[in-house]
Amino acid sequence: MVNIFQSAFINYMVACLTIATFATTTLMPPKLQAAGVNLDFGTVQFGVKVEKIVEKVKKAIDKGETNKIVGYMFDIKSEVEQYTGKKIDISKQIDEVQKQAKARGQKIDDRYIKQLKKDFEKHDKKYKHRAIWFAQCAELNIPYTSFEADLNFDMQYAAKSSKGNDKDIDVPITVTVGVTLSLSGLFLMFVPIPVCSTCGVYLLDTGVGILGSHALQKWDDYNKEQKNGKK
């Protein structure tokens, strides 16, 4: 599989953060500080955390572990929310991904969008439930694992959603991965730091590119069906 994340890009991001921090503490003129350019230790720490998550995404893509990418996207979402102090409406951001893809000639089936909103809303709740579970267990000084936290959430969620009539549909993996990476890019673009904006655009472009590969696959499948029908 082609490596869609270049290690040079990750190294570039870390280098930019390091150089920018040095420049901020030693060379930055008052005018730039007044303009809101503030690469303090917290900002650099945030950048390093993001770099580590992006590295995990790269490895997941390399190994074909696409099931892990959604979790990493929520890690980015959590880091951005903590750093900016603003909550991200993931449903609205999925709509934005659909708009971004459409503007670039890639249409995402509305049924897939609806299902992804449902799936990601559940995953978001599970992510938050896990954090609360860990905090409560730590406070009570009792052992805890992700498995137990997720099992507890799944039982509660199943009980609450048992009355629903909507049936789930299978979303193609290319659509799930494309939307997930695009969301990761949009989340980073919330942060007013040049390196995060650059990384965000890169992830967004990569995600939309994968959505484009899904469209090409659909056309190829259709073409094969037409050829087989004429035999």
Characteristic terms for this protein:
231 residues; mainly alpha; disordered N terminus; globular
Describe the protein.
The chain is mostly helical and 231 residues long. It has one domain. It is built from nine helices and no strands. α4 runs parallel beside α8. The two termini are 33 Å apart.
List the helices and strands and how they pair.
Elements: H1 7-26, H2 30-34, H3 41-63, H4 69-84, H5 90-103, H6 110-140, H7 146-161, H8 173-188, H9 194-229
Helix pairs in contact: 1-3, 3-4, 4-8, 5-6, 5-8, 6-7, 8-9
H/E element order: HHHHHHHHH
Structural class: mainly alpha
Shape call: globular
Total of helices? 9
Q: Mean pLDDT, rounded to whole units?
A: 74
Q: Outline the biggest β-sheet.
A: none
The total number of structural domains is 1
Q: How much strand?
A: under 5%
Head-to-tail CA distance between termini? 33 Å
Give the structure's gist in a few sentences.
With 231 residues, the protein is mainly alpha-helical. 77% of the residues lie in helices and 0% in strands.
